[in-house]
């Protein structure tokens, strides 16, 4: 089963490398859904039930968010509260080690990230979420998922630099050069 867990993690890593560089929210949500299902499966295969349950619930949340996004609607705050309550309930039911609380914190960070309509802010919260999953994976000895989360953490950090920091600098430079012409 551990080998299957590693295979699921590798596939997740490959899909996940596309997510941070995607511009369209629907693409991000689709990749996020697939990633959550695969990571959840990976946790399930190594008997990390809290992580698995949280990832499967996150996949359902992504589907709900996708439906709202497809209609051009924002996710209602009461629904975000329900998502948070679901994660808390899942964590209480599957809680088996103290570090399962880290998975809950990551899940709550996920709720915040999914509420973002700007991919810039989504990516920033994704970094914090990834850090929490890295700690959880290390403590839970979920090494396949640890690899996935470390690689995706690096990818999202690069994406933030490329899309948000560098582009902002370039637009300021272009704006400055444009104003100097007149």
The CA-CA distance between the termini, in Å, is: 67 Å
Alpha plus pi helix count: 7
- The share of residues in helices is over 70%
Question: Which stretches are low in confidence, meaning pLDDT under 50 for 5 or more residues running?
Answer: none
How would you sum up the global shape? Answer: globular
What average pLDDT do the residues reach?
A: 85
Q: How would you portray this structure in words?
A:
This protein has 182 residues and is an all-alpha fold. It contains seven helices and no strands. Helix 2 (25-45) runs antiparallel to helix 3. The protein starts with a helix and ends with a helix.
Main features:
182 residues; mainly alpha; globular
Describe the protein's topology.
Elements: H1 2-16, H2 25-45, H3 49-70, H4 77-94, H5 100-114, H6 119-140, H7 143-181
Helix pairs in contact: 1-2, 1-7, 2-3, 3-4, 3-5, 4-5, 5-6, 6-7
In short:
This protein has seven helices and no strands. The chain has 182 residues and is mostly helical. The longest helix is centred in the C-terminal third of the chain and has 39 residues.
């Amino acid at each position: 089963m551990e080998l299957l867990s590693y295979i699921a993690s590798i596939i997740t890593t490959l899909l996940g490398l596309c997510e941070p560089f995607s511009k369209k929210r629907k693409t991000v949500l689709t990749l996020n859904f697939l990633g959550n299902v695969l990571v959840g499966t990976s946790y399930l295969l190594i008997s990390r039930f809290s992580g698995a349950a949280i990832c499967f619930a996150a996949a359902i949340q992504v589907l709900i968010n996708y439906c709202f996004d497809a209609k051009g609607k924002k996710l209602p705050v009461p629904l975000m509260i329900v998502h948070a309550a679901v994660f808390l309930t899942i964590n209480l039911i599957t809680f088996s080690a103290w570090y399962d609380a880290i998975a809950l914190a990551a899940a709550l960070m996920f709720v915040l990230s999914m509420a973002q309509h700007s991919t810039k802010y989504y990516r920033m919260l994704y970094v914090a979420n990834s850090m929490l999953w890295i700690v959880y994976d290390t403590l839970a000895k979920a090494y396949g998922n640890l690899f996935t989360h470390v690689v995706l953490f690096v990818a999202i950090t690069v994406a933030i630099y490329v899309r948000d920091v560098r582009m902002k600098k370039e637009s300021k430079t272009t704006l400055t050069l444009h104003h100097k012409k007149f």
